[in-house]
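Could you help me review a protein record that somebody else here produced? Do not assume that whoever made the record got everything right. The record follows directly below this note.
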Amino acid sequence: SNLKHLFMCLLAISIYFSAIVHLIPVSTAKNGVSSKSRKRIMPDPVTEPPVTDPVYEALLYCNIPSVAERSMEGHAPHHFKLVSVHVFIRHGDRYPLYVIPKTKRPEIDCTLVANRKPYHPKLEAFISHMSKGSGASFESPLNSLPLYPNHPLCEMGELTQTGVVQHLQNGQLLRDIYLKKHKLLPNDWSADQLYLETTGKSRTLQSGLALLYGFLPDFDWKKIYFRHQPSALFCSGSCYCPVRNQYLEKEQRRQYLLRLKNSQLEKTYGEMAKIVDVPTKQLRAANPIDSMLCHLCHNVSFPCTRNGCVDMEHFKVIKTHQIEDERERREKKLYLGYSLLGAHPILNQTIGRMQRATEGRKEELFALYSAHDVTLSPVLSALGLSEARFPRFAARLIFELWQDREKPNEHSVRILYNGVDVTFHTSFCQDHHKRSPKPMCPFENLVRFVKRDMFVALGGSSTNYDDACHREGF
């Protein structure tokens, strides 16, 4: 019980600090004009950066639902009108995808219980609404998936109640801003004003439905159509890209070499392998961090055997290595090459939707892509958001398209990650305020980036996706 008490204290402290961190807006310019205020509020210290605390980082990743967060979505000078919104989410909290060999699986209940923590006032209504949706239209094979988690002992990779609550919260937050404040959709919205797409996993479909329910409570099932996306990169018909795969192979080689250098990591895997009595190689292949994160996020003690217990020190070593790996990944730029090619199809599709909206078309005003960490991560990297944290459970990345009412032909774009405005940190808009007094990032900057500059950034002579994907001599 002392351990539990300590854990809860740590958790409270970390939630408090994360609340403070989240309250530091990255760009809150008055009417967006002054460029001074776009600089970091806290000056960069001259000393070494503080050592990242692996447990704090892990708790941020868990994203345990707590106080409603302050977010910067929907903030714009008053003469701007919101035209369309494109939301990319990572699914919410899930049961692990891997089991630590020879240990008991963590006992987590994946049924939804309205008065159990984490609680959400719409949870009961969500369950009841989902039970009416079995005849709804989902593109195959989505129509064979359950619409909400429902196993007393979670199945591998299944969304948990926490995951549902995270996305009910996301949906409600977006409802308050985009529907109540900005009237993005009319009250009698029609099916073609939504674009919904998800991968074929129950956790992404269910996360998408939870967000949608928070956004449009008691929506009419007849107006809902979820498309199926077979690729985690959401690359639709443009998935074949040999050069992208070469970047990925080089990136995986970099990861492997970094791991070989880390003797403490090797020792930790060795100790854990002894505890569960399997070869070190087999333990590593079982990706134990995935399961350990689940124990941490759900406050369940790490597994024990008669040879001892997996403990917090083991967890810290593996998590610290993960953080180092992310740091090196940013420096070595191989992942950036993979990301530019991996994210191009979905970004191209998104600007296509936005362009139609700038022409006054009223379809697809709200697009939702329910996806994975391996979807969001390349998009963040491709946009140049190298400082962005790895996508936590229920992470959201949002593209907003705005029209200047005073100059109706001019459109602007804002990009937000977990409620923080990161527009002026992207590679296509970071120099904007040096050259222009305009308070928002011009939409054409994003178009030019996707149509041309993404290929320039790859360093070859390619000017389009097909050429870049089949470039010789990479």
About this structure: Residues 54-241+334-410 form a domain with the Rossmann fold fold (CATH 3.40.50.1240). The longest strand covers residues 80-90. Residues 455 and 464 are 7 Å apart (CA to CA).
